[in-house]
Design goal:
Number of strands: 12
Strand order of the largest sheet: 2-1-7-4
Shape: elongated
Number of helices: 14
Radius of gyration: 40 Å
């Protein structure tokens, strides 16, 4: 029962953790997509080319002319795309993504600096004065030019001399894949910083992918003795440890802890032998219609419809044994309860005194036994172990968590 409670609690915690980690990963994918979209848009924009061909130019008066230029992505690429991920920065080596702790990012503001402006070229001119430094105003540039009938007008994006502004961003506080994130939280809505948000969400996503629950087979009594759920379950089921009345009391109950350590195996090897390997060999009965089959192990049944049938059948057998035990107990004559028994029942240890005919025994206060009572065959005894509890439902519940 203690293992069932432990696995149920672990399953609930894992469900919450997995949902949180899924949200972190989804958020990271979203902001990475945004960054990729911005990069793709910049690359496409940098390739824009403008063509003034076709009969669509004109002017409404004698002093101006309007040129309509068609845009296309006919320009040269902004940068050469690596043919394979191993060719990035010509390292000829596949990245170890499981060791990723630093990324290279470019702010959106820096991306726009890649575009210096536009450049338009008009051909078919005569007598123009050369200006090789490209440092003149429009009137000066066009002042001496005359135009013939064979000219064209074309345009394109003028790029900055330096077209890459990526900087290294460390995702974790240390230059390793462990520890806290370098950026502690998302930036405020009124002060959004996409670069910081990207670093934070990627760090959280990496932490999520690195996170793992310790396998059930690697549990041990040494670990379980520190689990409050396990200690509480055993305290509530075993009278020997019922004197631990509070959660705080459990942490100092050495006898209870030693019992857990011994009962579940001091190390994972002993635990695995007693609880995992045993589950694999156990074949609980499964009632289907009028037939009872016991050919499948708990491992094979876990997570199937037959597992429910096996658990229900085992629970039915347990209830039947309990009813039979109660009937047998009801048929057994009960001794007359003495005044001392009534007086001693329920008293705490400090008030359980011998002069009142009481003694504190097995974790509870009860009437002190006399010689006559000890030899009296009708004297009431504890009903501990009065019936056998079928373990199949508990084992199925545990194994459902294992797989």
């Amino acid at each position: 029962m203690a293992l069932v409670h432990h696995t149920q609690q672990q399953t609930a915690a894992d469900t919450v953790r997995l949902q949180r980690e899924t949200d972190d990963i989804d958020a990271a994918f979203e902001i990475v997509d945004q960054q990729l979209g911005a990069i793709t848009a910049t690359l496409k924009f940098a390739q824009l080319k403008f063509d003034g061909g076709g009969s669509k130019q004109g002017g409404a008066d004698t002093s101006t002319r309007t040129f309509r230029l068609d845009a296309s992505n006919g320009g040269s690429p902004l940068c050469a795309t690596p043919t394979a991920i191993s060719k990035i920065v010509d390292k000829n080596k596949e990245p170890s993504f499981d060791k990723l702790h630093t990324i290279k990012t470019t702010k959106l503001e820096e991306m726009t600096k890649i575009i210096k402006g536009t450049q338009t070229t008009i051909s078919g001119l005569n007598s123009c004065t050369p200006h090789t430094n490209y440092d003149q105003a429009y009137p000066t540039t066009m002042n001496a030019c005359t135009y013939n009938t064979a000219g064209t007008v074309e345009g394109g994006i003028e790029r900055a001399a330096r077209t890459y502004h990526g900087t290294n961003k460390q995702l974790f506080e240390r230059n390793t894949r462990t520890g806290e994130c370098a950026v502690k939280q998302l930036t405020e809505a009124n002060e959004k910083d996409r670069e910081k948000d990207l670093s934070y969400l990627l760090c959280k996503a990496l932490q999520a992918t690195d996170s793992a629950t310790k396998p059930f087979s690697e549990l041990s009594g040494a670990q379980l003795q520190a689990e409050p759920t396990v200690l509480l379950s055993i305290r509530n089921c075993d009278e020997k440890f019922s004197t631990s009345q509070t959660k705080d009391g459990l942490s100092t109950n050495t006898a209870l802890k030693e019992y857990v350590k011994s009962a579940f195996g001091e190390d994972s090897v002993k635990f695995r032998t007693a609880f995992v390997d045993a589950l694999k060999s156990l074949k609980p009965p499964v009632r289907t219609e009028q037939k009872i089959d016991a050919t499948k192990s708990v491992e094979e049944l876990a997570g199937t419809v037959d597992a429910v049938a096996a658990a229900a059948h085992a629970e039915g057998e347990r209830i039947k044994k309990e009813i039979e035990a109660e009937k047998k107990d009801a048929a057994t004559p009960k001794p007359i309860v003495s005044k001392n028994e009534e007086k001693c029942k329920g008293k705490p240890q400090g008030e359980c005194k011998e002069e009142d005919g009481c003694e504190f025994k097995d974790g509870k206060c009860e009437a002190k036994m006399t010689k006559a009572a000890e030899t009296d065959g009708k004297t009431n005894t504890t009903e501990r172990n009065s019936f056998v509890i079928n373990k199949a439902p508990l084992l199925l519940a545990v194994f459902a968590y294992i797989i």
